[in-house]
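Bit of a strange request maybe. I'm writing a small parser for structure token strings and I need a real example to test against, not something I typed by hand. Could someone generate the tokens for this chain?
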Amino acid sequence: MNNLLDVPTEALLTRRRLQPRLDALWQSSGADDVIVEEFEARLEEVWPRLFRLLLELYGERYDFFYHLEQILLTAAESWVDRPEDLKRLDRHRIYEEDWFRSEKMVGGALYVDLFSENLGKLRQSISYFKDLGLSYLHLMPLFAVRPGDNDGGYAISNYRSVDPRLGTIDDLRELGRDLREIGISLVLDFVFNHTSDDHEWAKKAQAGDPEFQQYYYIYPDRTMPDQYERTLREIFPSVRRGNFTWHDGMQQWVWTTFNSYQWDLRYTNPAVFRAMLGEMLFLANTGVDILRLDAVAFIWKKMGTSCENLPEAHTVIQAYNALARLAAPGLLFKSEAIVHPDDVVRYISPEECQISYNPTLMALLWESLATRETKLIRQSLSHRHQLPKHTIWVNYLRCHDDIGWTFDDADAAQVGINGFDHRQFLNQFYTGQFPGSFAHGVPFQHNIETGDMRISGTMASLAGLEQAIQLDDDRLKDLAIRRIILLHGITLSIGGIPLLYLGEEWGILNDYDFVRDPAKANDTRWIHRPKMRWDYLEEHHEQVTPEDRAIRRRLFNSIQRMIKIRKEVPAVSGLQMELVPLHNQHVLGYSRFNESDRLIVLANFSDYPQTVSGNIVRTAGLGRFFEDQLSNTTYQTSHDMELLPYQVVWLRRV
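Reply from user aminoacidic:
Good idea to test on real output. This should exercise your parser:
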């Protein structure tokens, strides 16, 4: 972009030049005065930022003005087409911009087919979601996908068509309406780094259409791919080597960061930006409240770099954010960036992604369970928890994906830990290879050359419940249940939207039968994507023993009760959190506060009882007597407090 350009003036002049195009659209669409006035009022506010962002990305293009015009018209058309009930919700959320930071926000995530077969049957489960206490429901990718292996739904063939095995786009709209009626927000994935190789655009590229060959990174020989490969890492090294795939039909190489059938989109082409904008706004108008932006770190490529977390990737997302403010102002973005903690936070702002997964907290909670110590998680929380205003974390313990040990090596060094060696220990521990381990995880994408590995496994199997049931050891069963409750006690209280991968609430174990399906056999993440065990809910079922039912019911009741209590504690809204300076390395302590409400959380990560100074609790909580909201036990700070193995307490003044 020309640095001598007077961008504010050019934005104003361009806006004037585009107004006749907008006026023609309003007239041809029959939009009423209210619809027009609302859009143009938002455009007045958003346009300078949007123009600057698009100019940064595409200002050197000869056809910049054409694409700018088409982008604006796409947003305006989407606003006209937006259903009236969604527009009413938009108007409400514009004036209540922090609605998603409330203590009443609790999320659940699921695969439709694994949870309830299809969208129609999923609607029958809405009462279950309400009973559990959810106010946010993330449906994993459910759009039309390529046959066979499709990366768990992330190889999308058509963004405007639901996988016919799951239902139709109208089924999705009806589900969204039903969820909104009882106060549950709908979350879907926006897979915008790549399409499937059988997407319409990819098919046209394969047929030789030069317009659509420019939608992807396609090369006639290895010259360019080899130059890029010098600075790229391999994401799935056990599946294939490198980041490019040879396509026999075209006799050319295609950039495929993840799998050979997932073609990376070329965002340096503004036509790609505009095409994906149309897909994004179509999804928004089906009734989606939050879009999870998949693989945000990879969307911009530049020779000589890692092609991850580049500045232009942020610019693309910020431009989409500005356009969402125009066409679907109630829509929020959630970033999925499982990268270094310093890079994760760069995607988080009101102008980019208002919500972000918190992979560092997730990894360090499992790290604390393995070490029985809290020094690394305390070091990280001491400077990595706070975010910009009007943003929030999503705190999760397991998800559809693997666990990567994404802590900062500098944080580890501060507390005397060697990052590389510690990751090797954690991999051994969570695959059950370390002496005394309680975990039954399995490796994911083990790179023998670098030693890198991630971990697959359900929460219950990683926390020791699978081992305890196999050994039929009552003490180990109790400890495993306590670990699970402990982890939920933290994610529900530490600050952010807690997210359950549904099935966790029943302690579902690893599913080793995934290897029987050829489309899944080479991806160990399917071990923690089992079908929902609805028999756990039935009073009498021949496959569930009374003891097994008691374990599951104890877990469900505990998690359900914590969710209910969370919603009654204003202190856990937002992100205000301070660590409590304990002198016990096995216990994590922090205070949460919101106006006059204050909560002290203490969590024992040890197999043994631990003592906490009553005086420290008194000074942190500014009181003499405290009641644990989870057990209704009253503590007086004139005495030290004893925490049972893996006990978590939520203390409020009485």
